[in-house]
From TrEMBL:
Protein name, per record: F-box domain-containing protein
Domain F-box, chain residue ranges per copy: 7-51
Gene3D superfamilies per the UniProt record, alphabetical: Ribonuclease Inhibitor (3.80.10.10)
Gene that encodes it: LOC100791638
Amino acid sequence: MDVEAEIDRLPIDLLAHIFVLFTSFTDLAQASGVCKKWKQGVKESLARRHNLSFAGWKMDDDSTARLVFHAYNLTKLEIPRSCWGCQITDAGLLRISFAKCISNLTSISLWGLTGITDEGVVQLMNLCLPLQEVVQSWRPLFFGAVVM
């Protein structure tokens, strides 16, 4: 007779609460590979997040879009260029613009990204209706006006 381990008895809701406390995407990825229940817990933890920062991570269009797609309640998104080189392009911004959270975003930081253009940022801004702040390059933008 198989005996269920104590940790396997944790409800997904509690697992998601625990995974919200994780700050490392590597740890989240490893946790999601443990079993189907933990994978669901990781997805739910992403859905609960209001802030998501990729600072210090080497991210590309695909991995960034995949994580943002699961973050339904996101209001603040940071995709700064890190020392490892964030490789986000206009194509990545386009993919992000189809995420469910896009209508909730009030702030997005694209600090120092070199693979994006004004056209990509404008396209994203047009879909982020409540957007109050965009930080691109070295100048923050508020409702399209440059603030020095």
